[in-house]
């Protein structure tokens, strides 16, 4: 399986014009950013220039905005990391490689110029950073980039995730340094302004977690400030009492920070017999963003499908069976509340 990911990536890359830069689109969390940094650094070693475009709050890789942004630029193709498993070119006519580990929303198989690398069928399911590390290793020696793989593993799955790559990275770099780097890298995307530029820059510049944390490279102060902002918002939201509706526990907040997943995760362990929904009315104007978590053996993606309002689209009910959520427009949120018996 591991060889397949790397070798398939390498084969797909052969269809990219080496005279033009590769556009790497990646998610804004620790897994997506470390995958983006891995791709850029590995592509460089293989003789391909690359530009990284972080796809952030309210954006999609497959959107008019991204198409317009890249239509006039001379890129050779796209590598799309941690942004969902979708068998579609970003720009028609240019090769696209999709690397992802989320539950595919619909049948997603490679065809023509589109190569889909999904880790979802693997056991255990890898992170996008681990898949990117396999791709990097197929292109060029990449042992020195293992720490980037570990940043994504710890970011998505915690530092006990059962992967030999993580065990090796902990020996080389220490679990403490990796965890500290992850908490800083994850901070900017949760702030009200969401400027993850410094996080990506640090992942591109540093050569280990300790080097990233050393202050030798620019951007660390911005990450510390971001972490403080998120910490203060989280502490305030932790004081909000959940309301119970049948199997559901609902916590509603109003914060510009993306703290609803952290709040859902906190209550998940305290309310072990509930499906926890943490909803944020202040994250994006006109929308309610929510995170769903549960300690019960329930498939949240299937459950959310059952109670979906008619306006639910690709922003709703994706992710993983045990960690889902989404975004709904205000009208749809009202219907959703009725559907779960909360209104
Ligand atoms: Mn991920």
Automatic annotation (TrEMBL):
The lineage, from the top, is: Bacteria, Pseudomonadati, Pseudomonadota, Alphaproteobacteria, Hyphomicrobiales
Q: Which domain of life does the UniProt lineage start with?
A: Bacteria
InterPro entries listed in its UniProt record: DHH_sf, SSDNA_exonuclease_RecJ
**Which parts of the chain span the membrane according to its record?**
none
This protein is called what?
DHH family phosphoesterase
Q: What is the species of this protein?
A: Lichenibacterium minor
């Amino acid at each position: 399986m591991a060889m397949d990911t790397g070798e398939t990536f390498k084969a797909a890359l052969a269809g990219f014009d080496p005279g033009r830069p590769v556009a790497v689109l990646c998610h804004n969390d620790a897994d997506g950013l470390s995958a983006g940094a891995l791709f850029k650094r590995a592509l460089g070693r293989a003789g391909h220039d690359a530009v990284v475009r972080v796809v952030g709050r309210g954006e999609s890789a497959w959107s008019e905005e991204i198409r317009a942004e890249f239509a006039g630029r001379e890129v050779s193709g796209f590598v799309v990391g941690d942004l969902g498993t979708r068998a579609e070119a970003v720009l028609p006519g240019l090769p696209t490689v999709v690397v992802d580990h989320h539950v595919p929303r619909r049948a997603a198989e490679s065809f023509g110029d589109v190569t889909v690398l999904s880790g979802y069928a693997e056991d255990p399911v890898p992170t996008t950073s681990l898949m990117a590390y396999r791709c990097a290793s197929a292109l060029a020696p990449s042992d020195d980039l293992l720490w980037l793989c570990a940043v994504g593993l710890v970011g998505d799955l915690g530092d006990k995730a059962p992967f030999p790559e993580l065990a090796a990275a902990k020996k080389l770099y220490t679990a403490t340094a990796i965890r500290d780097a992850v908490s800083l890298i994850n901070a900017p995307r949760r702030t009200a302004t969401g400027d993850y530029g410094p996080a990506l820059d640090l992942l591109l510049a540093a050569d280990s977690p300790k080097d990233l944390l050393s202050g030798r490279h620019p951007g660390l102060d911005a990450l510390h400030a971001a972490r403080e902002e998120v910490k203060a918002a989280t502490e305030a939201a932790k004081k909000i009492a959940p309301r119970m509706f049948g199997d559901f526990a609902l916590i509603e907040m109003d914060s510009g920070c993306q703290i609803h997943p952290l709040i859902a995760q906190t209550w998940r362990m305290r309310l072990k017999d509930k499906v926890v929904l943490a909803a944020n009315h202040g994250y994006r104007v006109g929308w309610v963003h929510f995170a769903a978590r549960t300690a019960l053996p329930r498939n949240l993606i299937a459950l959310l499908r059952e109670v979906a309002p008619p306006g639910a689209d690709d922003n709703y009910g994706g992710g993983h069976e045990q960690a889902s959520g989404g975004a709904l427009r205000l009208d749809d949120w009202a219907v959703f509340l009725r559907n779960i018996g909360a209104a």
